[in-house]
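## retry 2 of 3
previous attempt timed out at serialization; input unchanged, resubmitting
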Amino acid sequence: MLARSPSALPVAVPGKSPQNLPMHQASYSRVAVSPPQPGSSPNSSAVPSLTSGSYAGSSAGDYDSSNGPASGVDLVELMNDRLGSAVNPLPLDRSLARQAQTSGALNAKQQELLELQALAQRRLKGARANFADGMKAAKEVKRDLDWTQKRVS
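## retry succeeded, writing output
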């Protein structure tokens, strides 16, 4: 195990937004706690010892003070472990996979619609050309019929 330096290590404490706090509470963002020096008495530390008589509900046998109050405890690692075990990532992973599948299907349908729209526009253009040719032929037939009618009468 690595030796820890006796300097204070900051510990992140989640703060509350000021608008949600009651008037009697304060907002804290960081608390610096330094581990006790080897050989120091438990009551001379800035952090109260769990074995001191002033701690409510404690007795001398409740806490093993031989290692010191903060020895070997990495609070960030402890919180990460607890949060990691508290949050189940499987539903989130399933949701992300489903979202990716849905997005892919939506993109494929969008592309298919664009292709069908282009096909419909080409067919409409062809139908308009055929209609114009048909109208031209109908006008020629009408003119020929009129000419023939004049000739016969």
